[in-house]
Amino acid sequence: MAVLLLAETTDGVLAFDATARAVSAVRGLGEVTVLVCGDKEAADRAATLDGVSRVVFSSDPALTHGLVENVAELVVSRSDGFAHIAAPATTSGKAILPYVAARLDVMVITDVAEIVDAETFKRPIYAGNAIQTVRSSDRVKVFSVRTSAFAPVADGASAQVEQVGGNGDRGVSAFIENHLARSDRPDLTSAKIVVSGGRGLGSGENFALIDRLADKLGAAIGASRAAVDSGYVANDLQVGQTGKVVAPDLYIAVGISGAIQHLAGMKDSRIIVAINKDEEAPIFEIADFGLVADLFEALPELIEKL
Ligand code: FAD
User: Fold this and answer.
1) Contact at 8 Å (CB) between 252 and 194?
2) I need a labelling partner for 42 at 20 to 30 A (CA). Which of 36, 134, 238, 305 fits?
3) Any signal peptide, and if so, which residues (predicted)?
4) Nearest CA to ligand 1 atom 16
């Protein structure tokens, strides 16, 4: 059995954490070949991941911006001999794998949170309220990995690295431009600490309290959908069913009620702390530490003490 794992890259740079978690998920299935759309540096970095047997990379410029059709064609062209084809369930992985599966005429299994055996996978459904067990008889299993469900593998290995060509530009879609929000903060999906604010903050200006607490802790910032919809922060900070899924060591939810759609994105966090003035708020049902308090009193005090 052999696994082809599409590494997560952004403009040719390896997203190390997401790729390391995906390797951790698939390594039990057989020999792992990591496919990198990027340069030799990205490939060499992927080759250090424990459990990787081989890294294949392509620096074809048609792949640089991760256009789905171009990347998917590369995956399909390299798929011979693999029983499993996987990628992290990121925005790009979720877009590319269905195309790959369609080209191979098999189904795609999304958001795999546990691999039971070579044919059987567990994945959350109903916003994480139920776990579905899926058995596939397809000749190739194409699936995306919920990275927050797997600890990253260590690095220190040195797998063989091989450069391959690309398939060029399919001419189906074109890259226009990227608008990137620059931040010195850790990436939300891989941060060890996340401080999230909800509607309880009351305004974008008050969200500065969340910034100050995150600064003290070296944390990433998250938000509930209500905070995003109210315009307090940008929507790339949204945590939950229709936002990002995170599982940090510490998740601090401030002024967030704990709707199931929010919990779907953070309930696997190692330690959950909730600050809410309503002692009946559902967030307290999953919190390890709960503080019933007015956030406008508790946060300045906490920041001061830290
Ligand atoms: P609220 O539910 O309004 O809670 C605010 C909390 O702040 C309350 O508990 C209140 O007691 C507390 N509070 C108020 N003032 C203070 C104060 N001074 N001090 C302390 N506490 C205070 N939501 C997400 O978050 N992520 C998603 O991905 C998501 N996806 C969704 C998908 C679908 C299809 C649907 C239908 C909904 C989705 N939602 C999502 C929305 C979700 O149902 C909730 O509406 C949302 O999570 C509520 O956000 P909130 O907790 O910030 O706001």
Assistant:
1) yes
2) 238
3) none
4) 200
Q: What is the structure's pLDDT at 11?
A: 84
- The predicted pLDDT at position 176 comes to 94
pLDDT of 30: 96
Q: What is the pLDDT of residue 128?
A: 81
Rounded to whole angstroms, how far apart are CA atoms 7 and 12? Answer: 10
| Alpha carbon nearest to ligand 1 atom 35, residue | 261
Residues of the chain with pLDDT under 50: none
What pLDDT was estimated at residue 108?
97
* pLDDT for position 119: 98
- The answer to whether residues 10 and 39 touch, using CB atoms and an 8 Å cutoff, is no
pLDDT, residue 126, reads 87
User: Where along the chain do its domains lie?
Assistant: 2-163, 193-305
Look up the CATH superfamily of 2-163. HUPs (3.40.50.620)
Q: Check if the beta carbon of residue 208 is closer than 8 Å to that of residue 244.
A: no
Q: What's the CATH class of domain 193-305? A: alpha beta
What local confidence, expressed as pLDDT, does residue 49 receive? 97
Q: Are 149 and 18 in contact (CB under 8 A)?
A: no
With a 6 A CB cut-off, is 200 part of the ligand 1 pocket? yes
| Ligand 1 atom closest to 295 (CA) | 19
* Residue 10: per-residue pLDDT: 87
**Whether residue 256 has its Cβ less than 6 Å from ligand 1:** yes
